[in-house]
Design goal:
It is built from 2 helices and 8 strands. The chain is α+β, with helices and mostly antiparallel strands. It has a 4-stranded antiparallel β-sheet with strand order 2-1-8-7, with no helix packed on it.
């Protein structure tokens, strides 16, 4: 009888510890990271076919504007720049996953449009003193 109660007690304690671990992991992943308290402190880099087309500091964007990028295969993506974020608002690819991804405002996940070979990455904006060094972003890790 005592072993049955101690087994139940141990199972409850282990379940509680695992639940707390999962909760803290989710909070860590979903909350903004250190240094991201200032909106728009990123530079958006737009690549097509592995070639850098644009490098746009998002902190310089004061009003919404659009860029249309056409691929050599005839595909077209319309990218919208907003203060502190960037996203693809229309594409002629069949699945439209890049449009459904929405706008990004941190470097956790890039936007990709595989049919049109388009990738949008956000990199932390560098201050004047740091501009000579290369700092890894979350994608690098």
């Amino acid at each position: 009888m005592k072993t049955e109660q101690s087994n139940k007690k141990a199972a409850v304690i282990i379940s509680l510890i695992l639940s707390l671990l999962v909760l803290f992991s989710l909070v860590y992943l979903l909350l903004p990271g250190p240094g991201s308290s200032e909106a728009g402190r990123y530079t958006a880099e737009i690549y097509q076919g592995g070639r850098l087309l644009y490098s746009i500091p998002l902190n310089n964007i004061s009003e919404n504007r659009s860029i249309i990028i056409e691929s050599p295969d005839g595909g077209k993506n319309e990218i919208e720049l907003r203060p502190g974020s960037i996203g693809i608002v229309s594409a002629d690819c069949p699945d439209k996953l890049c449009v459904r991804q929405g706008f990004i405002s941190d470097a956790r996940l890039p936007i990709t449009c595989l049919p049109n070979r388009l990738v949008i990455l956000l990199r932390p904006a560098l201050n004047g003193a740091e501009s000579d060094s290369i700092t890894p972003d979350i994608v690098t890790y």
